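Escalated from tier 1: adenosine-5'-triphosphate holo job.
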Amino acid sequence: MDDFVRSMFAQRHEQVLSIARERSSGNTVLRVGTTKGEYILRLCGEALRHRDREEILGEILLLQRLDAAGIPVPRPCALDGGHIVTVGRSNGILYPALPGSALARPVPKHCFAAGQVLGKIHQATAGFCFSYPRKSWGLAHATDKAKELEPYFLADDFLKRHAVPQRILALLGSMPEFSTPSGVLHEDFGVRHVLFKDDIISGVIDWDRSYEGALILDIGQAIRGWCFEGSVLSLERLQRFLAGYALERRMQLSEKDFLCRAMQFAFAERAISFALLSIQGYLDQKQRALESVEIAERLTDMQTQVINLCVSAGAR
Ligand SMILES: Nc1ncnc2c1ncn2[C@@H]1O[C@H](COP(=O)(O)OP(=O)(O)OP(=O)(O)O)[C@@H](O)[C@H]1O
Ligand SMILES: [Mg+2]
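Tier 2 regenerated the structure:
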């Protein structure tokens, strides 16, 4: 891999000074220092993480649209033959590293900034259609995945004892059709994918799972990441997040009714990922799978408070 990186940069007349691996849960993400600056080379992984060239192209076109709207996103480098990097079976993108870093401990003012940039993203991508196929990560996908994995989850004593697979399926089965406005979703707009420099957002990274769907699902996933203190929803953070969002995009009344459900969906969807990781040997993830289910279930009682906050943040 290092030789490949050196020869790629040699074609750009840049000499590689350092190559370091960034933390990733299954892709290859390299930070490359050269005589001209710092870059990130992100290549897809295997199986579920594999992305074909068309999917990467869809992501590149989206990044260009967001960049044109003034949102700080990675800017794919033009290389010989296009913007896609292919190494063996892995496809990916090279871009200059964005400044800043993800926050260890966001406080409410950061929730406001995050909400605002998400609103801006949703607003900037109105009418955007992926011209290349993308995987979808919505309710149908999560339900299929939960059903497919149920027997494997049930083979695990802990997950079985706490009825984790059945509870995930019950949650997903109780979801309404999210027939609210659709658009482009980041899908994983959590704390680790938003970079800050001096309290200003300097980058929104990892558009790997972006897809077209109900925007409210993106808001729900984002709130999961930004507005919980441990397992408890912070109404102050949620209020700040929604106020930031409303500055850029006004939620519709139909969306406010679905927000709590979208948050439940976000936790149910995460519970599947944690349970999967746990049966793949990451045993510490079992507890997180159970906690995610419990949080999702408890959120049922928060429906009225969440609606009221949406209304006071300006949902029409
Ligand atoms: N454009 C960028 N600018 C600066 N740093 C970046 C950029 N892209 C990625 N990184 C760094 O690389 C890390 C991993 O990136 P990314 O989230 O895209 O990969 P991933 O495979 O999805 O990892 P994970 O599964 O942990 O989310 C980020 O947390 C960040 O530290
Ligand atoms: Mg990531």
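The two ends are 52 Å apart (CA to CA).
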